[in-house]
Amino acid sequence: HVQLVESGGGSIQAGGSLRLSCSASGLTRSAYCMAWFRQTPGKEREIIAVIGSAGGTTYYTDSVRGRFVVSEGAFKKMYYLQMDNLKPEDTAQYYCAARLQLSCGNFDRSLYKDWGQGTQVTVS
After folding, report:
1. What is the C-alpha separation between 39 and 13, in angstroms, rounded?
2. How do residues 85-119 score in pLDDT, each as one tens digit?
């Protein structure tokens, strides 16, 4: 049973930085795609960053590339999203998600079955 818990959200001024954390448990397979998504009211949840736990390859959408960095902590238990130079359009509920590692560059949201509860980021 995979359990994901996000933390680190908050309110911040434009240009500032936040680091989101995702605590993961129940990841018993050898490799996972760990993704960060975000969602604003009335819009679909969009993927923004992915890291493959085996090898550490990372993927980003254009909207965050160069400003956000996804990383993995030790023993596949913690995942992070460092967000720099935040903009008001980054305001959203942020979620981490996991799936078995297979073509992590495939951004199809329906491939992800395990989700956290989300953490709110507000940029003003």
Report:
1. 19
2. 999 999 999 999 999 888 899 999 999 999 999 99
